[in-house]
Structure formats: C-alpha cells, structure tokens
Design brief:
By secondary structure, the protein is of the alpha+beta class. It has 17 helices and 22 strands.
Length: 489
C-alpha cells in the first residue's frame, strides 16, 4: 500500500506536495519521494524513511516548478531498497516520472515482453518500474510529432490491456502536465479535487480525500475504474474512459484498516463504514451470546475505536480506553519481520490496570492478520487483571494473501488459515474470538454507495477479481514470508 499525489498549480508545488504526503504517511513508512518540473527540467528527491526525514530545507529548495507528483512507499514484498523508492523516471519518450499504488499480478510476463519485444531495461524488482516502461513504450508508438491528450489516452488504453492487477497511478510529463489513472476494477483508490485560485481551477490527484482537505481542495470526484485524467500545464482538465467498464470492486481492506477515517473513497465515508461495522458486530454478539457477561468494551488503538464505540452502545455496556499508545512507533502490521513486530507491540501499548482488573473485557480490533499483536495484547489484558478476555474483529478471518498491493504474508503465516474460530482463540489466548461476517462487512461498506455492491474481498474469500496465475500466488508466498524479509533487512 502506498500514497500518491499529483498537482498542477499556479505557484511552486513542492511544499504543498510535502504536506499532503505527511497526511498520507499511514499508507507507507518505508520511503518517500517528490518530483517537480520547471521549464521542462525535472527535479527529484527520494530516499528511504518517513516523509519528515527524507525532506529538509536544503533538498526541498531543489524542487522548483508549478507541477509535481509525490509518493510514500510501503513495500508489498518487504525489504529496504533505496533503488525502489518512488517516483521512477524514464527519459524516453518525453521524459516521464511515475508513482504507483498497488500491485501488478502479471509482472513476470510483462518483464519478458519489455525486454524481448520492447527493448527496455528494468533496473529494479519493482512492478512500478515495469508499469512506467509499459506506459513509455505505448506513448512511443505514436507517429505524431507532439503529444496530445488523445495520444495519452490511447497509450493508457493499451496499458490497461497489458497490465493486470490493482493500480492507481500519477505521472508527470514535462511541458504537458500530470496524468492519473486507475485499474479497470477500481481496486486501488484515486480521487480528484479542485480549488479556485485567481478565477481559475487548480486540480489535485490523491490516494485519499484527506490530502485534498489539507489545502482547501474540494473533492470533485473519484477517478473511475479504467478512467484516465490529464491535467494540462494550463490547468485544463481532460477525462476519458480507457478500458471497458468492468464491475467496480474497490479493496474492502481500505475501509477496514488502511484509509484514514476522515477520508471519503468511492463516495463512501470511511468513518461511517467503520461505525456500521461496529453496529453489525454488536448484532452478531447479541445473536450468538444473548446472555453475554461483558463488563466493558476496550478498543485497540487507533483504527478500531470507531467500530468499538457503537458496538459498546448497542450492547449496553461501558466503553473505556484501556490502552495508552506511544504514537512514535510505526504500524506493526507493516513491520518487515516477526521479531521487529514483537518488539514494536511492547513499545507501542501499555495497559491501564484499573480498566481491566476483575472484569470481563471485550477487546475490539479492526482485523487479525498474523495474530502476533493480538496474542500480546490479550496477555497484557490478563496481566492487568482481567477476569475474562474476549477478542472481537471488525473484519472476517484473514485467511488468504492480498495480491493487489497490501503486504499480507504467506497463507501459512496467517493465524486464521485452515483454522476454526475456536482454534484461533486458543492460539491467541482468548476466552472467545468473535469475527465479523463477510456479508455484514460488505453491507457496512456498500451502504455508503448504492452503486457499489461488490468489493475485492480476496483476503477473506480467496476470490480474486482479476485473472490470476497459480504460479504467481506460489511466488508471492515465497517473497512475502518472514524468512524472505529477514534475508533482505
């Protein structure tokens, strides 16, 4: 999962892109980069680390120009490789800089085509560089002497026929403008906003609407599945559908965990979706445990709090904050190895004993992936004096890898893989584990937009919305395992 920004303005864009990346930091903490363009000259600063650490007063001064793109990276295959920090650049044709959120599932085939047919060299293991070179090759096919919007849209149409997976892309072409496009299923999010400046609209593309809010851009629309956007250097906006219309299936894990709750994605409020998740989870508890003995509902900070509040209200029990969070520790879900995750959980949370002592507590989290964090938190609750510990997940059991841009591990490293809820509870050390049902989760999200009835739910259902090669899934298990990640750290 990554965050992307694209902006054309009437003034220097570097500081605006930097600030927008800071509010998309939750989407990736591995690396960050900004590219700008001034009179056809591209300036690029990128490195491993958080946004605040990569950029400083000296290197931001190099980023001149009224248009630019930004990226904050989270590696879907782990590792710590400076070469894979984005944006990526290729000089021919026109000079293109590209940043990408998502994952291609036919990268192996595309690499072969690019080398053998297109005569292009790929320098990293990143599928983003593959995507950039496919775009460059398709743009180079034109016989026109100057680049037009029609040529851009034709190239993206051709790209959509070659590239399979989930992707939201922003790209910059010197002297022409900013391009944005989204995969034909709309798996990965991309929104467009506008702001009136000097009686002219300026446009911004972003992974989430929260980035638009920061600088007063109004949310204009979502980039539609398979649609491409061109923001010209004259701030004119061009839009065109560049693939056949398929069923819109956004990634449901965006609403469960990844997106900020103050974002609106595909016209669905993340905040309201999580409120509904809590309500439906409470209804399930009341059905399955009508005589429950829960004394208090306690959220695991921070993303589960929104679901835990309506859950407690619906159950008619107290809601309490039982854990204090150290906000200077990164998200453990995306830590590169098991040992690092274990250390981080202990540094990240501390229990408030008086909220647990002698009580039957219901801990609520957004999801349970490996179970590493959950096991330690349950033990913290017991050490703090809890009489019983129930553990509820606002999402269904995560039993399969996500292949479209979220670094969920090999299936055998997922605590729910091939296990019943009772078996999971024993492994985690909980008196009972309670999961959301998949139909209830889909309903909680789709209630926000009646036109979206299906989502990418592959990590719960093992049903992938694009073509899928069994060999690719096997390869993914190898590169996403903790063993593989420890070898590259």
């Amino acid at each position: 999962m990554c965050g992307v920004i694209g902006l054309v303005s009437q003034s220097n864009v570097a500081s605006t892109i930097y600030e927008c990346l800071t509010v998309l930091q939750h989407r990736g903490q591995d690396a960050a980069g900004i590219a700008t363009c001034d009179n056809r000259t591209i300036a690029l600063v990128k490195d491993n680390g958080l946004v605040r650490d990569v950029f400083n007063s000296d290197n931001v001064k190099k980023l001149h120009g009224n248009m630019g793109i930004g990226h904050t990276r989270y590696p879907t295959a782990g590792g710590d490789n400076r070469l894979e920090a984005q944006p990526f650049y290729v000089n021919s044709p026109y000079g293109i800089v590209l940043a990408h959120n998502g994952n291609l599932v036919n990268t192996k085939q595309l690499r072969k085509e690019l080398f053998e047919q297109d005569r292009r060299h790929i320098n990293t293991g990143s599928d983003s560089e593959v995507l950039l070179n496919v775009l460059a090759h398709e743009l180079q096919k034109s016989n026109e002497s100057s680049l037009s919007a029609a040529m851009v849209f034709d190239a993206i149409s051709a790209l959509n026929k070659r590239c399979i997976g989930g992707f939201a892309v922003v790209a910059m072409i010197p002297g022409h403008g900013i391009i944005g496009f989204r995969d034909p299923n709309g798996i990965r999010p991309l929104v467009i906003g506008r702001k009136l400046v000097n009686q002219q609209y300026e446009y911004m593309l972003a992974s989430e609407s929260v980035a638009l809010d920061l600088h007063g851009y109004e949310l204009l629309d979502d980039v539609n599945p398979g649609e491409a956007i061109l923001i010209g250097i004259d701030n004119k906006l061009y839009r065109q559908q560049c693939s056949e219309i398929k069923q819109h299936t956004p990634c449901i894990f965006e609403f469960v965990y990844f997106s900020r709750e103050d974002s609106i994605i595909d016209n669905i409020s993340v905040h309201k979706a999580r409120l509904r998740m809590g309500e439906s989870l409470a209804d399930k508890i009341l059905r399955d445990m009508p005589d429950h003995d829960i004394d208090v509902v306690i959220p695991i900070p921070d993303t589960s709090r929104t679901s835990a509040i309506p859950l407690a209200y619906r159950l008619g029990v107290k809601f309490r904050e039982g854990f204090v969070k150290n906000r200077y520790i990164g998200r453990t879900f995306i830590m590169p190895g098991q040992e690092e995750r274990v250390k981080s959980v202990k540094r990240k949370l501390n229990a408030i004993d008086l909220e647990f002592r002698g009580k039957t507590v219901l801990l609520v989290d957004d999801s349970i992936v490996r179970g590493t964090t959950s096991t330690q938190i349950i033990q913290m609750a017991r050490d703090a004096g809890a009489k019983k510990v129930y553990f509820a997940s606002a999402a269904p059991p995560v039993r399969y890898p996500n292949v479209y841009g979220i670094d969920m591990p090999a299936a055998n490293e997922l605590v729910a893989f091939n296990r019943s809820e009772e078996e999971i509870g024993k492994i985690l050390g909980a008196d009972k584990v309670i999961y959301q049902t998949l139909p209830d989760l889909i309903a909680a999200c789709s209630d926000g937009n009646k036109y979206i009835t299906s989502f990418d739910t592959s990590c719960f259902s093992n049903e992938y919305v694009t073509e899928m090669d069994a060999d690719y899934l096997k390869q993914l298990e190898v590169v996403r395992s903790d063993k593989a990640k420890q070898q590259v750290i």
